[in-house]
Amino acid sequence: MTDKITNWTGADDAMVENAIRRGASRRELLKMLLAGGAAVAAGSMVLGRATQALAATPVSGGNFKAAGWSSSTADTLDPAKASLSTDYVRCCSLYNRLTFLDKDGVTQMELAESFDSKDAKTWTVKLRKGVTFHDGKDLTAEDVIYSLKRHLDKSVGSKVAKIAAQMTGFKAVDKSTVEITLADPNADLPTILALHHFMIVADGTTDFSKGNGTGAFVLQTFDPGVRSVVTKNKNYWKSGKPYLDSFEFIAISDDSARVNALLSGDINFAAAINPRAMKLIGGQQGFELSKTTSGNYTDLNIRLDMDPGSKADFVAGMKYLVNREQIVKSALRGLGEIGNDQPVSPANIFHNADLKPKAFDPDKAKFHFQKAGLLGQSIPVIASDAATSSIDMAVIIQAAGADIGMKLDVQRVPSDGYWDNYWLKAPVHFGNINPRPTPDILFSLLYASNAPWNESQYKSEKFDKLMIEARGSLDQAKRKEIYGQMQTMISEEAGTIIPAYISNVDALSSKVKGLEANPLGGMMGYAMAEYLWLEA
Fold first, then answer.
1. Judging by DSSP bridges, how do beta strands 407-412 and 378-383 pair with one another?
2. Does pTM surpass 0.90?
3. Candidates 3.10.105.10, 3.90.180.10, 3.30.460.80, 3.40.50.800; correct CATH number of 294-503?
4. Got the DSSP string for 284-321?
5. Taking every annotated instance into account, which residue ranges of this chain make up the domain Solute-binding protein family (predicted)?
6. pLDDT in tens, 209-251
7. How many Cα atoms occupy the beta-carbon half-sphere of 351 within 13 Å?
8. How far is 430 from 417, CA to CA, in rounded Å?
9. How far apart are CA 512 and CA 274, in angstroms?
């Protein structure tokens, strides 16, 4: 016979949840349930159900303290100039974008109510009404136009100036409607404007020290390179948000020190924990680890326009020599997902899951090295701590080469100056690429014939034409098909080897709730302060 409760209603569930919030003990709760006619087993079931409901129900109030890993006296509240995670976190708390990416990588509306275009070249943006800046000013079309045009002004020094350059015309149709014209069709414009740099600021803003935005929090303190404190925007246009009363953000560069600050209760959240520092968390009660994989990767780059990469068989051999499973297990300590030598990660809706990674096959690698006439020759491979885990990856690949008589001379160089002196320049070297929201941005930056960061000097007229075709199409199914084909071309033809997509691990108090993955990066795409709550 099943235990059940007679005359138990939703109001009774609410009574139990309220009692839990007040701190009632399990003994007290069971007494309450028994008095209401519940058997012991049924009472335990109700308690479990109530506890789960509370864990998923946001609670208002509390002061949230978090620590990132990087800071500088150049920290800024100007979204256009944001360059570090600390900048992104602060800007996300103070400002809003026209659009944002949800946990599934789908573009959602934020300050924009709608984004419409018939040809992917001229876009009409309808703005939400009733949105105000922290100083009380209403959001208008002029604010949006000013915010976007700033990126085209060289004196501003926008970090996304090249991406913004495609926007060639702006028009305020009325107070709540903006028309944006592009140089060429681009169906990704709504997604591009979800990047952190495209936050909307008030028309005419030149002083960003006050952080005057439309966002969930209002600035109280900002000490560049040290800390910031923001408090709840009581006039926020998103009903019920934020849940927190305040949010303090600091930077602690040392991993162990960041974890120790969490364990001692000085902070609630420690971002981007090194695998070695994860051991400090261990099985300690009251703390958790959160793992997200959003598209960051370290790649081995072989320049196709220089020896030995000019020999196609050397590149083919290296792709078979990379043991992707061992790299994830050893170099990344399990914190990664196997990659298939192309930059669009599983976090992206356009990821080609049918494209399988090259299998580790030393015999095939040896065959290709012999065919290239390079077996036994010493090949320099440049690695540095500047490119995450590249030294550990290089050692794994070097050992596999030694087993078949391929001599890979791993040269470890300092982090200082690596990106200027070795990246994009050395014949065989490592890179490290952060997540980007669209395949088009990744391809334009890294694989188009004129790409500024073309790591392997890959050139393909067919690839370039496909990129332009996909960019201008509003047919999502067609775009997915084209992007899948382009990912296959990169995997098979380019000189970049992407063995894994690296996972980010944050450590947090168990009282922190609401944390989810986001394709724009860790800490919920750096926007966590608006969505998290602290369990009472």
1. parallel
2. no
3. 3.10.105.10
4. -TTEEEEEEE-S-EEEEEE-TTSTTTTSHHHHHHHHHH
5. 109-451
6. 999 999 999 999 999 989 999 999 999 999 999 999 999 999 8
7. 21
8. 14
9. 20
